[in-house]
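User: Show me sequence and structure for the first protein, then do the same for the second.

Assistant: Starting with the first protein.
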Amino acid sequence: MAAVSAPDIQQGDKLRSIQKRLKILKQEISERSKKNYELEKDVRFFDQRIALLINHRIAFEELSDRLGDGDRRVGVIKDELKRQRYGNLFYLLQTEPYYLAQLTRIVSLNEIDSLLQPVMFSLYGNQYEAREEYLLLSMFELALKYEFDECENFNSLLRANTAISRMMTTYTRRGPGQEYLKLTLEEPLHELLSQPDLILEINPIKVYIEIYGHPQDESNQLTIEKAMDDPEVQLKTRIRIKKLVDVASLFLGIIVSSLDKVPYGIRWLCGAIKTLAMEKYPDVSVEQVSSMVGGFFLLRFLNPAIVTPSAHMLTSKQPSQTMRRNLTLIAKILQSMANKNIVTSHFKEEYMQPLQPFALEHVDLMQSFLRDLCSVQDFHESLEMEHYLSLSKNISISITLNEMNKIHELLLQYKDDLALTEDDPLFVLLDELGQAELQMSCLEDLTVHLPLSNRWGPKKQVIRTDSLESTISKKIESEAVKEQCRNTEPTLYSAVQRAQKDKNTEWGGIADYLMHIFQSVDEFHNVLYHDDSFYQEIRQEVQLKLMKCEKFEMELQSLQRVYEALDNHGNFLQEQLNAYKEYLVVVRSRAASVSKVQKRSSFGLSSSQSGPKVLKFTYTQLEREGVIIETNDIPEKKKSDISVTVSSPEPGVYTITLYYKGETSNAYETDLNLEELLEKQHLSEPISSSSGLNLPKPKVNFKLAREISHKCN
C-alpha cells in the first residue's frame, strides 16, 4: 500500500502547487487587463487632445501631468461611515443586476466609458472567479432582455453602439477570451504572416491597377467587367481565389474544432442571444438566429482579432497593408457563412461572388458550429451555491475614487429613470450618501480596497441539499487531515500496546477492543493485498490525478502566454504615453516662444511688469463683447464698480479675477483651461461658472478667449 499511495501524495502536493500558481496568475491577468484598459483609454485621450493642442496650443501642463508614470497610488477612505456606505452600495450593485442593467439602457454615448470601466474591471474585475462571472452574466442577461424588449425590428437587434454592446465586446477582450484567441488563432496567423509576399487580392479592379497602374484616361471608367476582360487579370484572380479558399478553409477548420475551448461566458452569451431572439421573434428562421449569434461571436470577437492581430496581442508586429487586406478577405468569407441567406443568394461585393461555391459547401459546417456554441449549461444553480459560499468570505473590490464617484454621480443623475421607491435599498443608500464628489486630478485619484457588505442581511435563496452536502463533505475531507492521520498512526499503535499490558484497568479493556479493530483492518488489508480490482482502482485514481495535473500545467502555460502578451502590450502603451510626454515638452516650448511675438490688440488694457502679463477690463466692456452673458447675484447698479483682470500664469491656463471699486482684495477668482473649453465645445455643452457669473457657450467664448490668450503670453 505504501508503494502505491506515495505517488498519490506527491502528485497531490504538485496539484496544490500548480493550483496556487494558477490562482495567482489569474489575479495578475485581471489586474493587468484593467491597467491596459486604462492605458488604452489614455492613449485615445491624448490622440484626440494632442490634435487639439497642435491647432490651438492648449493645456500643456495638464496633459503632461496626466501622463505620469502609469502607476496609481493606493490609499484608503478615511471616513469609516462613508467607506461602509460605499461598501453597501457596491455590494448592492454587484449582487442585484437590475440596477446596472437599467443604467446601461439610459446612459448617453458620452457616458458609456465612464460606466464600462468600473463595471468590467472593478465591480466584476476578478475575471476567473466563478461568483463574479455569474453575477456579471446575470447583469448581461437582464440588459439583453431589455434591449430585445425595446427593439421592434429583428434586423436592428444588437446593431447600435449602446453601453451593453460595448460591454459585451469588452467582455470578450478579458483574460479568458484572450486565452482562447491565442490558443485558436495564434498559430494560423503566424503561418500566414510568415509569407510576406503573399497577395490574396481578388477584386479585379485592384488586380488590374496592380498590373498596369491607374488608367490614364479618367473618362474611361474602369469597371469590374472591363478589368476581368484582361487575360492577365483573369489568371492572377483565378490563382488567388484558389489560394484564398485554401487559407479560409484552414481558418474555418481550426475555428469549428475549437468549440470546447470557447470560454463559458462567451458561449453563454451566444445562448442568451439565441433564446431571447426566438422568444421575441418566434417566426424567424434558425438561420436568421444563427446569423445574429455570428454577429456577436464572429463580427465582434473573432474577426476583429483576425483583421487586427497586433491589437489583440496575437502578433508583435503590425501586418503590412497587403497582409491586412489578406486578413480582411479571410474575415469576410468567414462572416458570410454566418448568414446562410447571403451565401445562397448573392454576396454584397460582386468580386466575392467566385467564392460562393466554397461558402455553399461549408456554410452548414459554420451554422452547426454557431448552434453548438449556444448549447451550454445554465449557471443559475451554480450562482446560488456561490452565493451561499460567499456568506463566509470577506468580499472586496479594488476601485479608484474617481470610478466610485462617477458611478455615484450616474446613479443620482438617472435616479428618476430608475424609478426607485423610497424603501428601495438603492434609494436609501443614495439618500444617505448625498451628492457625489467631483472628479479628482490624476494625482489625487487613489486606488482603494473597498470591503463589500450586505446591509440588508443574507438573501433568501433555495440551496440544493445534495449539492450543499457534497460541497461540505469535500471541504472536510482535506489532504491535511489525511496527512495528520498518517503521521499519528505509529504513535497511536504504540500507546495501545502499552495500555494492553495493564489488564485490570478500564484502559486495558479499551486497548483490547482497539487492537481487535486494528487486527480486523489489518486482515482486511491482507485481503485487499491479493485483490487486483482494489489496486486497479488505486492506479486509476493516480492516473486521473496525473491527467488533472497535466491539464493544469497546460492551462498554466497558456495563461502565462496570455499574461506575457498583456504585459508586452501594456509596455507598448506605456512607451506611447512616454513619447507623448516628450512631444508635449517640445510643443510647449515652441508655443511659448511663438506667443511672445503676438501682436497687441486694442481690446483691453495691459500691464507690462515682470512676470505674467495682466489684462484689465471693465465689467460693462466684457458684457458688451459677449464674454459675460448672464449674471444672477450682481445688482445692476454695482456692475459699473466691477473690473476684471485676465492673466496667464502658464501656457493654456488663464486666471480671471473680479475686483470691486475701492477694494484691494479680489471678490472672485477662477481659472479657465482652454482644453476644457474645446472639449465642451466638441460635446456641445454650455459652460457656467460659480459666484453669479455665466460664461457663454464655448463656440462663442473660444474666439474671444483665444484673442485674450494671445495678449497674456
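Switching to the second protein now.
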Amino acid sequence: MILRFIYCGKIDLDQLAGSDILNLLIAVNEINIQRLIDYIQEYMIKNKDNYVQQNSIEILEKIHQNNAFVVLQNICIKKICEDTQILLSKFNSLSASLLELILNRDDLPLDEIVIWDNLIRWAQHDLNISQVPDPAQWKNDKKTNMENMERTIHRFIPLIRFCHISPENFTNNVYPFREIMPNNLVNSLVQFNMTRNQQFNNDRRPPRSNIDSVIIDQNHIAVFANWIYRKDKFYGYIPYRFNLLYRASRDSNTAAVFHNKCDNKGATLVIVKIANSNQIVGGYSPLSWDISGARKFTNDSFVFSFANRDDLQNARVGYCNSDSHSIYCCSLNGPVFGRGSDLGYYNGVWYCHENFSYPDVGIPLKVFNMDDYEVFQVVSN
C-alpha cells in the first residue's frame, strides 16, 4: 500500500479498520513520508471519528511523543476535554508521560480534587498497594508504600493546582497524603487553607476550564467568581460552574430565542462584546429571567465592564443600589438591567440610557452594536 502511494501517488483507506490505519500511520512515519502522514491524519479525523472518539487514550499512547502526529494528537485531546469520562474510565492505565501531558492542560474541565484523587489511585494501582482512601488505615508497610508513592508522584505535584481545591477536600483528601509532598508545600497549603486571604505561592494559574465561549476564557471566569462571591480577591476553590445557555451568533439574535433558552434557569451571567472594540460589558443576576413583565430586585445583581477584555486588572463592577429595579423581564426585550435600562437589549441592539439602578462602570451611554453576546447559567458546585 505504501509502495503504491510512492509510485502512483494514490492510497485507498476505505476498507481498513481504524486500528489498521493507525498502524499504517506509524509505519509511514518511520520512512518519513510527510505528505502521506498528513493525509492519513486528516482521513482519520474526517472518516474514523467514532474510532478516534472511543480510542483517544490508546491513540495518544502511541503518538503523543512524536511531533509528526500533532494534528491527530490535538483532536484526541479535544475529545478528552469534551468528554472527560474517556479519561476517567482509563486513568489507571495511563503511562506517566501521557499523564504528564494531560495534567499540563488548562482546558481539561475537571475539578482539581477529582484530578488529585485519580492521581493517587493511579499511583496506588501502578505500585500495587492498598487503595484504602486514608493511608492511616493501611495495615502493612505504610512507610515503604509512602516512599514509593512519593517517588512515583513527585513529577506530578507541580501540575496540581492546589489553590483550587476547597478546604474541606484538602483536609479529607490531600492532607492524609502529606508524607508524599514536600514539607514546605504542605506547610504553605495548611496556612493557605486556614486563611484563604492571600495568594498561594504566587500561583496565578486559573482553574482548569473548557469554557464554551467566543468572548471570554477561564481567566475571566475567576474574576466573575470573585464578584459573585463578593470578594475583591478570590484565590481558592471557585464554587461555580458556568454553563452556556445562549449565544446570539449561534442561536439567533432575537428576544424570543433568548427567553426560550434562558428563562427560569436561575442565576445567569450575560456577556456582550461591543462591535469595533475590545470592550466587553454585561451583568449578573441571581434571579431568573421570564416574560412576566415584572421588575425584580436583589442586592446581589451587578453590571460590569472590561474596557479591554485582555486587561483583567482594570475591570469594573457595580452592584445594584437600593432601587427596586435590578432586572426587567419582558417578552419584547432580551436581558435588561436597571430601571432606566442601565444595560439592556431591544430589537437587535444594546443600549445604556442612564446609570440609575447601578453605578457607572464604563458602559457606553448610548445605543451600541455588538459582535456577539452570550448568557451562562451559574451553578453552585
